[in-house]
Design a protein that fits this description.
254 residues, globular
Length: 254
């Protein structure tokens, strides 16, 4: 007897239409590929040219008009919007300044474009999903929205962690819980993925220190967050909302 595949089918995204913001970035490209592999029709949305025609979508999440136009374009072309993954990473040109050098105006601007952009796009997607039976919104937060930075990993490098980042990612976690209860009755689920540090060409000393503090003894890779995202997008997570799925190699378990 051939075993039933109904549980495997739960993880399929076949027939679903997804938009991934920040789709031209390191994580965004991996997420687009993963959702396509799971069967979804995926639009790679980015403020720069996301490529990947014909599924490229120009979108600035910091602009309500840009978001509205982009989502309406997707629905006009496909008739639906089932999945939104917010992975965009808007930031000012002085991003990465040390705490003593951070300008308050820049701090506000980063919160407005990043946290505000996730709010604008999440609300716009949820309103459209609510009229068509529901959907799944997945916002990328971070371990640094949950815990304070471990400053020793930055020692001897020019790297730091901007204070606005913690405020933004912590705000995304709170916003997720709010949206999950507000739109839940309409069948719209809202969850977060909180990655740990992802390999991106950091100095060797940073990587060594970071890995020493991580129970799995390595930094994350883009593909590590794909499975978590596909799960939350799929019917396998049909009863999961308001949740923060941490993908950090055990960093926050210490």
């Amino acid at each position: 007897m051939v075993p039933e595949n109904r549980y495997l089918d739960l993880f399929s995204c076949a027939g679903k239409v997804a938009v991934v913001t920040g789709g031209a970035g390191q994580l965004g490209r991996a997420l687009c590929e993963g959702l396509r592999t799971a069967g979804a029709d995926v639009y790679a949305a980015d403020v720069t040219d996301p490529g990947q025609e014909p599924w490229a979508l120009r979108m600035d999440i910091a602009s309500a008009q840009s978001v509205r136009v982009a989502f309406d374009e997707v629905i006009a072309a496909t008739g639906r919007l089932d999945i939104l993954v917010n992975c965009a990473y808007p930031r000012t040109s002085d991003w990465g300044a040390h705490l003593a050098d951070e300008e308050l105006g820049s701090w506000y601007q980063n919160l407005q474009s990043h946290l505000g952009g996730y709010f604008v796009s999440s609300r716009a997607a949820a309103e459209r999903m609510a009229t068509s039976g529901g959907g799944s919104i997945i916002n990328f937060a971070s371990i640094y929205g949950m815990v304070g930075p471990s400053w020793e990993v930055y020692h001897g490098t020019e790297m730091t962690m901007p204070s606005a980042y913690s405020a933004i990612k912590g705000g995304i976690l709170g916003m997720c819980r709010f949206l999950s209860t507000y739109y839940g009755p309409a069948g719209v689920r809202c969850n977060c993925v909180s990655p740990g540090g992802i390999e991106a060409g950091q100095p060797a000393s940073f990587v060594e220190r970071y890995e020493a503090l991580t129970p799995l003894r390595r930094m994350g890779r883009p593909e590590d967050v794909v499975g978590a995202t596909v799960f939350l997008a799929s019917d396998a997570a049909s009863y999961v909302t308001g949740h923060n799925l941490v993908v950090d190699g055990g960093w926050t378990a210490r």
